[in-house]
Amino acid sequence: MGRLLAAHMRVSPLLQILTTAWSIVEVLTGKLLPQQPEGAGIAAAVKVVQEVVTSQQRLPALRQRKQLSSPSFWQVKVRQQLLPALQTLATAAAAAVAAAPEEQQLRIARSLATRVCANPGCLNLRGCSEGRLRSRRCSGCLVARYCCCECQVADYAVHGRVCRQLGAEANAAL
User: What's the domain range around 53?
Assistant: First the structure.
């Protein structure tokens, strides 16, 4: 009985490490799956990830522990199937983020357009009346408002990249 308990004590820290590793895989999967763009390779990778993770999650707790301590699970399911699929998903997600700085700039410009002055570096603390700001809108998009010409000129390097898109969105909303 003493040897059995000693063997269990040696396995327990390893099982804890493997359980933690699997938890990290589940969190990573949960973050990557919702962000995926369309594509044939992406769809296949999503399917592999969902199958491996779901099959593990459906097991009763005792079977999950047994599977997590199995070298063949880690070699076949995780190393040969799951990790390449997760790498594909992570690469696609990174490419989507890198390809979307314009979308991010557009989101920032939309939120800045709701301010009294769309220049994020504006230090004018006096504020302007709403009536005065109507005449101080960007003539390109008619969305962004500025407190003065200096702020509009200072913001043009950033705003100029998204000006047409903001205008198109405003026209489409009318």
Answer: 2-99
